[in-house]
Design goal:
The protein has 213 residues and is of the alpha/beta class. It contains 8 helices and 7 strands; from the N terminus they run ββααβαβαβαββααα. The strands form 2 sheets. It has a 5-stranded parallel beta sheet, sandwiched between helices. A two-stranded parallel ribbon has the order 1-2.
Length: 213
Amino acid sequence: PPQGKWDGYFTFDTEDFDGRNVYLPLWWLTTTDLFGSNVSPWLGKAVTLKELTSSRRAQYESRHKFCVAFIGKAYPYRLHAIEALSRFGQVDVFGSVNRRGKRFNPESKIDIAKDYRFMFAFENDLYPGYVTEKAPEAWATGAIPLYWGLESDKYFNPKSMINALDFPSLASFAEHVAEVGSSPDKWTEIASQPLLQREPSLEQAINRIREIL
């Protein structure tokens, strides 16, 4: 949360802080074209708001692998979730968290993920409004995001992902993922959904800058 006597803040915190704070989460900057055309630095692909708010043609048949995870930090809850999922199918882990050396370049992320039905997309922490690039990136690969996060402003379409927060345990979460993964109809129903329910806007941020100046 903002600290100090600054005139204004742009943060992932949804609190107003006496009118000084404006919500501006990381994924707006890195995984959309809200600020203009750009390539997501961790995905190697440009992702547009038009794409994120549109339904898509899901391709179940070409995705014969179960789940892929790109992880840098070995938070225990992530590892427990991967262990639970591994009881139902192989979870291929890439990134510095993998001691076996499965490294990757950002530009190859799309190529790796194209064969998987699910992509692991757990946030680093559970805090209202703390939303990074993880779910948008997973969705942009064509896989179903396996999410864990508190997207309190309801930009994300809950029908487009499977959120571990909706289940009483990681075991029941993993069981549901396995059930969806083994059903072409259930998988396609979720994978065809748009990620966003509405587009983010910079109007509030721009107005706050005008007020401060």
